[in-house]
């Protein structure tokens, strides 16, 4: 089975046509080991973490790779496949680089 590539996005830039995405942001809340709320300074998104092992905590900077799902209410949700620690990442520079890549149509 061949998987689609995970497209780098900020939450506000998620498109309805996206299948797998990659989002970097801060853990705003962990809800009963079922899901987290991820905030990337543009918006927030619910991330289902039931299928992954994790050791992060609230306020940690992480990268989530997973499948994008749309709920009946129109809510976006990511089903996490991989979660990476990004605590050493300069998030402000990351966001600036993302915006440059977006202007160049690279994301």
Largest sheet properties: 5 strands, mixed, barrel
Distance between the termini: 24 Å
- Roughly what percent helix? 10-25%
Number of helices: 1
Mean pLDDT score: 93
Compute the number of structural domains.
1
And the CATH topology? OB fold (Dihydrolipoamide Acetyltransferase, E2P)
Corresponding CATH superfamily: Nucleic acid-binding proteins
> Total strand count, please?
6
Structural class of the helix and strand makeup? mainly beta
Which helices and strands appear, and what pairs or packs with what?
Elements: E1 7-8, E2 20-31, E3 35-39, E4 44-48, E5 61-70, E6 76-85, H1 91-103
Parallel strand pairs: 1-2, 4-6
Antiparallel strand pairs: 2-3, 2-5, 3-4, 5-6
Describe the structure.
The protein has 107 residues and is mainly β. It has one domain: Nucleic acid-binding proteins (OB fold (Dihydrolipoamide Acetyltransferase, E2P)), CATH 2.40.50.140. It is 12% helix and 41% strand. The protein has a five-stranded mixed beta barrel. Strand 2 and strand 3 form a beta hairpin. The chain is globular. The mean pLDDT is 93.
Short description:
Helices cover 12% and strands 41% of the residues. With 107 residues, the protein is mainly beta.
What would the keywords be for this entry?
41% strand, 1 helix, mainly beta, OB fold (Dihydrolipoamide Acetyltransferase, E2P), 6 strands, 107 residues, single chain
């Amino acid at each position: 089975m061949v998987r689609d590539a995970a497209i780098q996005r900020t939450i506000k830039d998620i498109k309805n046509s996206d299948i797998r995405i990659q989002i970097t942001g801060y853990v705003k809340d962990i809800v009963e080991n079922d899901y987290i709320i991820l905030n990337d300074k543009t918006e927030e998104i619910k991330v289902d973490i039931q299928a992954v092992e994790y050791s992060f905590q609230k306020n940690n900077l992480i990268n989530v790779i997973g499948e994008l799902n749309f709920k009946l209410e129109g809510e976006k949700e990511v089903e996490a496949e991989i979660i990476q620690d990004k605590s050493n990442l300069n998030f402000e520079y990351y966001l600036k680089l993302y915006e440059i890549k977006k202007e160049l149509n690279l994301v």
